[in-house]
Amino acid sequence: MYRNKISDLITWKSKKNRKPLIVNGARQVGKSWLIRYFGKEHFDGKIIEVNLEKNKDLHSIFKGNLDVKRILFELGLALNTKIEEGKDLLFIDEIQSCPEALGSLRYFFEEMPNLHIIAAGSLLDFEFKNQPFPVGRVETMNLYPMNFYEFLKARNKNNLVQLLEMPYKEVPNEVKHYFEEDFNLYLIIGGMPECVNYFIETNDLLGLKKIQDDLLYSYQQDFKKYKPNMNSECLLDILENGTKFIGNQIIYTKLSQRFTSPTIKKGVDLLLTARLLHSVPNVSVSNLPLVASGKQFKLFFLDVGLLLRISNLEYQNLYIKKELSAAFKGMLSEQFVAQQLICQKEQNTFYWARTESGASSEVDFIILKNNSITPIEVKSGKIGSLKSLHYLLENNKHIEQAIVFSLAKRGKENKIEFLPIYWAGQF
């Protein structure tokens, strides 16, 4: 399967001042597969893979002194291989299982800069809370579920991929009909690589539910690792109830009726750290840089397919009628766009809402595009009046362009560009 991050890894490999790379992300987003594929396709030497969760006997190598030449020699001895600088790729997987290995990365940069070394793991952000992050001594890369472009590539929909690669102004007007089937499938399957691969091999949506259930169960099992700092029942409440408020400003008390707001807030922060949820804060658009205005924020889920599954929403008839994107109050469409933007813009995804008492104006997303503030609205059905977006533009003359993603309309009216929703991750 193709992943966009391959190009980032190729750039990293050729850097003169290359640092050890940490690939971070939620469980099962494809970190290990990506690194193995990269090593196989772009290194002349060997891939030396060390899994510190499976091979705990190797932890002792990192628990002595942090002499990296000694560490490399003993790793080679334990693995019965020679690790060659400048030729081989050393891949340390599940590095969070051994904090000393994480701490050693800074010394590889200082004392062995020619070694290509990549570390990956889940829940790394928790480990970074327990020890100083080696600022300036490592690079980081975040991996997310497959976006819609990668999904199409995986399904060998090369004609659709070519359309997404074109400037959208050159794309035929009737593009909706070309993408309709795959867009609706993506809302159900999502971008988790195991789910995508299973459907490609079997064309079976019923069996897919079991794969998604297993993924969700593995995330819930991780909750046990957070004790005694957090009640796992509170985390389950947040995860299940949070799906009912996707795209809505969060009020903690709505996420659980069994726990206090401070406890719920702590649980939300923990799930954000685990990357199962993403926070999109309310931001002021009066000028740059964009600064969060107060404590208001919205939550989005890791993946749209898992969101649909955990919500237990019946989609069969909606899929057949091609009404899936507009169902559930447009929740899936807004999650779809959020997922594409977060993957593309990393943490620079916001929304806007008036904070005055009694005010109700809100615009779904705010991003920076070409260093300009760009509001984004998502419409799953008819376009409507766009009152909030017009209010925002009328009261902020410095904003030169806004985007509306929908299935209903294309073209430009004054400052507002109407684009097909499929372009949310490409435009």
Summarize the entry for a quick read.
With 427 residues, the chain is an alpha/beta fold. It is 40% helix and 18% strand.
- Strand percentage, roughly? 15-25%
The major pleated sheet works out as:
6 strands, mixed
Give the uncertain stretches in residue-range form: none
Strand ordering within the main sheet: 8-9-10-11-13-12
* Gap between N and C termini: 22 Å
Number of strands: 13
Order of helices and strands: HEHEHHEHEHEHHHHHHHEEHHHEEEHEEE
Backbone shape: globular
Task: Give the helix/strand class.
Answer: alpha/beta
Mean pLDDT: 90
Oligomer: single chain
Number of helices: 17
Which value, in Å, is the CA radius of gyration?
Answer: 23 Å
- In which range does the helix fraction lie? 40-55%
The domain tally reads 2
